[in-house]
Amino acid sequence: MAMKKCTRVFLFAVVSVILLWVPYMARFGFQDIVIVRPLMSSSIGENGSSVRTEQHPQLVYLVQGASRHPIPGLNATPNREIIWLTYRDKTGDIYFPNSTLTEGRNRLLLEAIDRASKRNDGGYLYYLFLDDDLLLNNENETKRWWRKDLPRNPFDRFELFLHDFQPAVGFTRFGFYTHDVPAPVGVNYNFDAIFNGFHRHTISFMLPYISDLDHTSWWFSQWFVIHISAMFYNSNRVRCNAVYVINPRYHGNNKLKGAYADSGDFRIPRDYLRTWIDKNNKVKTANGENINLLRTFKRQALYFDIPGNASRKNSMEYRVSTKFITTAFDKSHPGIQKILRWRNLPKVRNILYGSEKDEPDFFPDVFPLH
């Protein structure tokens, strides 16, 4: 009898919390979202007994630098895993000397993919790449907040943004966003590589980083990310304004003795990416228009102002289908061949589709074209 009474009291308490929590969330416009970060969860075992099972981290931070060191505010948690790559000493989880920025990030991604593929839950929800000199700060102007109950730790704050909006690519305010109109979120064509969070389904095309032009400039791999995200996920490449980033070490001044190639001629990656696209085929976009993706290159190579309204994920499909790739792009191109081989790796397919056998159709949300 005592056990039954305890069970009733426990259930009453749980229901009460839920009833109070739902209206609270509704006040801020997130009535369908519940953020849960437990290490353990309960399931039903034999004879109806409760069994505690491990919950894996949903976020993995992929950091690279000369040597491992503390980053203010960033610590491992039950929901946050951190993997370090170092190129000067062996203090990190991975030692990769003489690597470029792109090579290092792709090596970190491969390590995270290996770990994620061993799970049966799709792996990490977000892969977050950051430079080791990152300093993440809170924005105190409340006009840039999307909630009133934001955490004090800026990393917790950014993670809450990822959970609430679930962008294809999420990033923070940086130097060239300082004069924008105060708002909780925004959309930028150009965003810096210092701190980007990628939804796991973007490994269907956008990741790994394209390293083909690393010999010319290390900046070009981020240009590919920028343009592909605008070409595929215009409303879901979202800037979180409630935090902002600074970095004391400017990479473009080549102080590291040739460590950073600095060609800023972004016509080079633009013209290269054009060769990937099949000029004879059109694809259907999310708004029902039929276009050839070459139309997305009509403007200058590096844009600062392309129209777009940030939105939550809702029903947007981030997984780029094989059918879409082989229709929109030249499937004989070495770059596309590389992506198709990547997608066919068992570990990648396990993350993208799990037990599903059929790929869903993909309709890109392309930025407005004029």
Q: Averaging pLDDT over every residue, what do you get?
A: 83
* Helical run tally: 8
Low-confidence stretches: 1-7, 9-53, 254-259
- Written as H for each helix and E for each strand, in order along the chain, the element string is HEEEEEHEEHEEEHEHEEHHH
Could you characterize what this model shows?
With 370 residues, the chain is an alpha/beta fold. Helices cover 27% and strands 17% of the residues. The relative contact order is 0.12. The protein starts with a helix and ends in a 17-residue tail after the last helix. It has helices at residues 2-27, 101-117, 154-165, 220-232, 267-274, 322-328, 334-343, 346-353, and strands spanning 40-44, 50-54, 59-65, 80-86, 94-95, 126-131, 135-138, 169-173, 185-187, 195-199, 237-246, 283-284, 290-291. The longest helix has 26 residues, at 2-27. The strands form 3 sheets. Strands 3, 4, 5, 6, 7, 8, 9, 10 and 11 form a 9-stranded mixed sheet that branches. It has a two-stranded antiparallel sheet with strand order 1-2. The radius of gyration is 22 Å and the shape is globular. It has one domain (59-353): Spore Coat Polysaccharide Biosynthesis Protein SpsA, Chain A (Alpha-Beta Complex), CATH 3.90.550.
Brief sketch in words of this structure:
This protein has eight helices and 13 strands. By secondary structure, it is of the alpha/beta class. The N terminus is likely disordered.
